[in-house]
Specification:
Length: 280
């Protein structure tokens, strides 16, 4: 059995709103739920847990490639620049079209290139089983020679579809257990051991800020900032995007993912602006 000590990990797609971002859905009583936000939350926690367990880990996420093909090519280029034991691709699925909830979640699946490596297959099966213990349906291990990352990476790779962005039951369960618990299920499945989780602040306690897309000139952005301050009584700053007449807004901090998502969705519903959130 191969000892696993080095890893590439990435969140799929560009970051939210950057041209080739992932799937999303407007979930009843929750609001917009974005793959390109949540896959990065899980990715960050997977990397943290691997490093805490003395594994060399590289973040191969690409945030602003602009197109799907460019994103995939740049991810693979980053992955293949490191000699590692595993490439781990974190995604969220879509296609369930159950934004209101039907009491049945859609669940997790893990994709591999083929079944030629029994150790890799066993790792994928354990990941699915760990998700099932959390309450997610186990859709099992699947195989494809068409998926770009699985075809093009030099090291053994797996693509994990954590759950469905457009299934309210999945989203409710994901939000209940949190990204760090999801990451723990993944890492324990790969390493085939119980891992220690540090007492670092969880995503439910971390501070996040809302960040808008570009709103135009500083004058326009300042006017928008004043409107938001009046409407929500939030702290809002105008920030330069580094391009002529391209300024964004950043809010003060909100504690925890559920709160910042609620605030962000309220802002989106009122203004229609693209926005995301980031850790402070």
């Amino acid at each position: 059995m191969q000892n696993l000590n080095t890893f590439n990990v990435h969140g799929g797609h560009d970051s939210q709103g950057q041209g080739a971002s992932g799937a999303c859905a407007n979930i009843k009583n929750i609001g917009w739920f974005y793959e390109s936000v949540e896959d990065r939350n899980v990715k960050n926690d997977v990397i943290d847990l691997l490093k805490e367990n003395n594994k060399t880990t590289y973040d191969c996420t690409v945030d602003a490639a602009g197109t799907q093909q460019a994103n995939l090519a740049q991810i693979v280029s980053k992955c293949n620049s490191h000699k590692v034991d595993r490439d781990i691709s974190i995604h969220f699925n879509s296609g369930r079209n159950d934004v209101n909830g039907d009491g049945d979640n859609a669940g997790v699946e893990v994709w591999l290139y083929d079944n030629s490596d029994s150790q890799l297959v066993n790792e994928a099966e354990r990941i699915c089983a760990n998700f099932s213990k959390l309450g997610f349906d186990n859709r099992g291990v699947k195989f494809s020679k068409e998926l770009y990352v699985l075809r093009k990476t030099k090291s053994k790779a797996m693509l994990i579809e954590c759950c469905f962005v457009d299934d309210k039951d999945d989203v409710d369960l994901y939000r209940k257990v949190g990204s760090k618990t999801i990451a723990k299920a993944i890492v324990e499945g790969i390493l085939n051991t119980s891992i220690n989780v540090s007492s670092n602040v969880s995503n439910s306690e971390k501070i996040y800020k809302i960040v808008t897309g570009g709103l135009g000139s500083r004058e326009v952005a300042e006017k928008k900032a004043a409107e938001i301050r009046d409407l929500f009584n939030w702290y809002v700053e105008v920030k330069d995007n580094g391009k002529p007449n391209d300024f964004r807004l950043e809010t003060g901090g909100f504690t925890g993912v559920p709160k910042v998502e609620k605030k962000m969705n309220a802002l989106y519903e009122l203004t229609g602006w693209w926005c995301t959130y980031e850790k402070e």
